[in-house]
Write a structure and sequence with these properties.
The protein has 308 residues and is an alpha/beta fold. The chain is built from 13 helices and eight strands. An eight-stranded parallel β-barrel has the order 1-2-3-4-5-6-7-8, surrounded by seven helices. α8 (169-178) links the parallel β4 and β5. α9 packs parallel to α10 (229-241). It is an enzyme of class 1 (oxidoreductase).
């Protein structure tokens, strides 16, 4: 099982330096990361939305160690919102944020993350769009859900993410569905112990279907985060059984993965949102993409041994 090994490497400074210096890294990172600056990503947003797709934008960077870095992360999102304002795309271009990037793991991190993310959510609402709080490892989730609940008091469109591989998620899904929340469901991409998470792929898939059914039958807005053709088809069937119209749920996939499927779903009338990450601190995000699919790792290794 290479996935857990790669996820462990995502926390290694030594591996970070090695991967960053490898000759093929830039080519492969470019498959998953839309650029390093907001100037580079804005044209991609224009192109993506012109094809009938929607986007959620993630400024990558998680392992911050100072309050100054947390403030810089907040400011990076505010700059992004300022650039999106001119595009006038509304909810077709939203944002995803990781609260670790806003200082959640620092001393007083819960309050710091809330105070940093609130102006981002306010600015997003001012241009007619919204923010989704990404899920990270299980130790951060109580804080994330509490911040989500607090933000929804003033900005009910604020979304959050749940991870199917965690035992707790069915209960979280029932609560969020009853509250009418926007919820993205994903399988999960962090190294979690067997005491809190399913380890077997088949069990994770079964949990994903159960949880998606809860969301579809609830009062919220489900966002199906998956590239798995079988889960996509099941999502469509669950939506049909729940009597949901095409604009009452959406699919989400990662930039650079199954791009033909993005277009196919949009052509069928589905809302299809592309999770588009950009920024210079790409390492943790990139390693999780490798861990999710062995073919991604093979592509990377081949590129590493190919001369530029």
């Amino acid at each position: 099982m290479l996935g857990p090994v790669i996820l462990a490497a995502s926390r290694s400074d030594k591996m970070r330096r090695f991967v960053s210096a490898a000759p093929g890294t830039k080519q492969v990172v470019g498959r998953f990361i839309a650029g390093e600056t907001v100037e580079q990503v804005v044209p991609i947003v224009r192109e993506t939305t012109a094809r009938g797709l929607e986007v959620t934008l993630d400024v990558v960077g998680e392992d911050i160690t100072t309050r100054e870095q947390a403030f810089a992360a907040r400011d990076a999102y505010l700059e992004l919102i300022d650039r999106l304002k001119a595009l006038d795309l509304g909810t077709r271009a939203e944002m995803s944020v990781k609260l670790s990037m806003f200082g959640q793991a620092l001393d007083g991190g819960h309050e710091l993350a809330l105070s940093n993310v609130r102006p981002v959510v306010e600015a997003a609402a001012a241009i007619g769009t919204t923010v989704t709080l990404d899920a990270e490892d299980h130790t951060t989730l109580d804080s994330m859900f509490a911040i989500h609940e607090e933000l929804r008091k003033d900005f009910p469109q604020t979304g959050c993410v749940i991870q199917a591989y965690l035992f707790r998620t069915e209960e979280d899904a029932r609560r969020l569905a009853a509250n009418g929340s926007r919820v993205r469901i994903v399988k999960g991409a962090y190294k979690e112990p067997a005491s809190v998470a399913y380890q077997d792929k088949a069990e994770i898939d079964k949990a994903y279907v159960r949880i998606l059914g809860i969301l579809m039958e609830g009062d919220g807005y489900p966002m199906i985060g998956s590239h798995d053709p079988r889960l996509i088809a099941i999502g469509q069937e669950l939506a049909r059984r729940a009597g949901r119209k095409l604009d009452e749920y959406e699919f989400q996939m990662l930039y650079g993965i199954r791009s033909d499927e993005h277009v196919r779903l949009a052509a069928e009338g589905h809302r299809m949102r592309v999770y588009t990450a950009y920024g210079t601190d790409w390492y943790g995000y990139f390693m999780r993409r490798l861990a999710e699919k062995p073919a991604n790792l093979l592509f990377f290794v081949r590129s590493m041994i190919t001369k530029n």
